[in-house]
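Readers of this paper often ask what the protein records in our data store actually look like. An entry from our holdings is shown next, in its original layout:
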Amino acid sequence: MIKEPKALTVRKTFQRPSKAQVAAFRDVPTGQVSDALGGRGVLSSCIRPIGDGHDIDCAAVGSAVTADNRPGDLFATLAALSVIEPGDILVAAVSAYQGCAAVGDLVVGMLKNSNGAGLVTDGPVRDYDGILKVGLPVWCTGLNPASPVSSGPGKVGLPTHIGGQRVSSGDVIVADRDGVVVVPFEVIDETIENLGHIRISEAAYEAEIADGRKVSQKALDALSDGRTQFVK
């Protein structure tokens, strides 16, 4: 006979980014963060800000706390609330199950009471109006009024997969209306350094466009240096 699994497996302690590391990503567009990661780290475009961010300001940066739930269950998500520290982002994986909500306004409300910064899930959510009243940004796949169960088994604080990416507790989550990017803990400083170069480059390009540039110099060079075949 197969032994019944524990209802929960929880890792309460893990490396977290410093406040300075998290602050380095604040107000930085997710597009620039992805560029600084070499195009990596972006969650599936199915995971969007709730209501596409029309009714709530969906922008958040924080340390990930992971909850790995079986499809249709939220027991790990409930338990993960006990690990949340101020500024954390709860990452609730449900294996992309769409048959019921991953969370509702009550979970989001408890997360806000814990001073969490936001919630990311690969499932739908319920209680849209209630979540708006809570006022905490949420990224999800849509809406579904059906409730999940809460029986487990589930894992908290351990690596999980969501939106095509591996997420570990302590990774930095950067999310806005364009989507969600995961910065692995081990490359946080490298990514911050890359961000500095990217922001300088983009600022220069934006200035050129404001001054009237119509075609990128890279394209103009390719059109004039023999790399282009013109056809009739």
In short: The longest strand covers residues 60-69. The domain at 8-186 is CATH 3.50.30.40 (Glucose Oxidase; domain 1). The mean pLDDT is 95.
